[in-house]
Amino acid sequence: MKFKKSIQTLLLGIVLSFCLFLSIQQNLMASEISTSSDSMAETDIVSDQKGFPKLESAVDQYLMSIPSGYYTIAKVEDLKSLMANRQPLLVDVREPSEYKSGHIPGATNIPIRTLARNLSKIPSDRPVVLYCSAGYRSAMGVMTLHLLNYDNVQGFPPSFAGWKDSGEAIAK
């Protein structure tokens, strides 16, 4: 039950962040439009009287845009296959102390809080897979990177716990 609540909180946070992003973008575009035009082209996002997108409309558009699978690799076997065939960058977004206590072999540690400062370490020309201890931080990282135009990023929701529980090798 706690895990479900964490996922719901994460999704709400992502949606609200995206709505804020849309609002900022819309305000920037609106400020660039000449005031000499009395009519503006309608967009798919319904706006309130001040020009801000209505939350419900923005949330609906965002949720409808999420593809099936939510940018995830759902099974340990699927991750192992990807690792064997496509050589993805595997990113452990946990804290350094968590990483040092054990991680998936070949993973690079980039804590979630430092993700934006380490974009130079994240390639855009090959698969990138993020994981953490339970899926919460990696989901935030995946959505963050997608907002930054990385379309090659997926999360591994079974995370380190799923990898460990399946009996796979652990690096230290």
From TrEMBL:
Which PROSITE patterns does the record associate with it?
RHODANESE_1, RHODANESE_3
The chain's coiled-coil residues are: none
Q: Which GO terms describe its molecular function?
A: thiosulfate-cyanide sulfurtransferase activity
Which residue positions does the secretion signal occupy?
A: none
Q: Where is the Rhodanese domain?
A: 84-172
Query: What's one Pfam family here?
Result: Rhodanese
Spell out the SUPFAM superfamilies in the cross-references: Rhodanese/Cell cycle control phosphatase
Q: Which residues cross the membrane?
A: none
**PANTHER family named among the record's database cross-references:** THIOSULFATE SULFURTRANSFERASE RDL2, MITOCHONDRIAL-RELATED, THIOSULFATE SULFURTRANSFERASE_RHODANESE-LIKE DOMAIN-CONTAINING PROTEIN 3
Name of the protein in question: Rhodanese
Species source reads: Brunnivagina elsteri CCALA 953
